């Protein structure tokens, strides 16, 4: 009986020691993992195939016809608004302008002379035997016609000046040259497309 009791005590002691070791192992400190939590927005990259084009593509043309003598830009060049893209031979346009200058000078002289004759005849007065109302009215009409011819000549002079300015084709906005169907020496007509400009404002 004594041996059985001692054996039970030994097993109990072993269990007690084992339980103590297990409890001690459970109570041992464990390392703590520290991590900072941050908000990160999700990022997703999407790739598409497509073509980027200018919203406005202007087909530029000369307002007058003539022979192209200069083309300082090339296909693909980036240009600024007002930059010269091409020039025409201005010889004929300059001659037309000079002719209109002379026409204005002649009409000025005619108008001055008509007004002077009208004033001289009007000074005769109705008491003069040489005075006739019909002649006075005729001279008044002549003076008015001379003034009208002068005004018309001045408008034509301004138009001739504009046409000389039109010999230079300028970019109407910042952009890139996407087409340039002209060459130096080519004769072009008024309104014929000689350059295509893709505006840079919007794509």
Layout of helices and strands:
Layout: H1 2-27, E1 57-61, E2 66-70, E3 78-79, E4 84-88, H2 91-124, H3 133-165, E5 168-170, E6 175-179, E7 187-188, E8 193-199
Helix pairs in contact: 2-3
Describe this structure in words.
With 203 residues, the chain is α+β, with helices and mostly antiparallel strands. It has three helices and eight strands; from the N terminus they run αββββααββββ. Helix 2 packs antiparallel against helix 3. The chain is elongated and about 175 Å long. It starts with a helix and ends with a strand. The model has no long low-confidence stretch (mean pLDDT 85).
What key phrases describe this protein's structure?
2 domains, 46% helix, 8 strands, 203 residues, 3 helices, four-stranded antiparallel sheet
Contiguous low-pLDDT stretches (5 residues minimum) are none
Structurally, the number of domains stands at 2
How many distinct beta strands?
Answer: 8
Shape type: elongated
Distance between the termini: 104 Å
Order of helices and strands: HEEEEHHEEEE
CATH topology of the largest domain: Helix Hairpins
Going across the major beta sheet, what is the strand order? Answer: 1-8-6-3
Largest sheet: 4 strands, antiparallel
Computed CA radius of gyration, to the nearest angstrom: 50 Å
Structural class: alpha+beta
Share of residues in strands: 15-25%
The overall average pLDDT, rounded, is: 85
CATH class of the largest domain: Mainly Alpha
CATH architecture of the largest domain: Orthogonal Bundle
* Tally of helical runs: 3
């Amino acid at each position: 009986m004594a041996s059985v009791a001692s054996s039970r005590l030994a097993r109990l002691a072993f269990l007690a020691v084992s339980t103590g070791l297990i409890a001690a192992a459970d109570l041992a400190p464990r390392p703590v993992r520290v991590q900072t939590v941050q908000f990160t927005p999700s990022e997703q990259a999407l790739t598409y195939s497509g073509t980027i084009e200018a919203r406005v593509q202007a087909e530029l043309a000369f307002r007058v016809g003539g022979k192209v003598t200069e083309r300082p830009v090339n296909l693909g060049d980036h240009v600024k608004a007002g930059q010269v893209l091409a020039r025409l031979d201005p010889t004929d346009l300059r001659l037309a302008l000079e002719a209109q200058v002379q026409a204005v000078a002649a009409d000025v002289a005619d108008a001055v002379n008509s007004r002077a004759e009208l004033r001289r005849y009007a000074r005769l007065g109705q008491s003069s035997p040489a005075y006739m109302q019909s002649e006075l009215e005729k001279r008044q009409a002549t003076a008015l016609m001379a003034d009208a011819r002068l005004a018309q000549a001045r408008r034509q002079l301004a138009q001739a000046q504009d046409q000389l300015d039109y010999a230079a084709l300028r970019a109407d906005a910042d952009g890139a040259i996407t087409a340039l169907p002209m060459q130096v020496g080519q004769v072009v007509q008024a309104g014929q497309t000689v350059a295509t400009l893709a505006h840079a404002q919007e794509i």
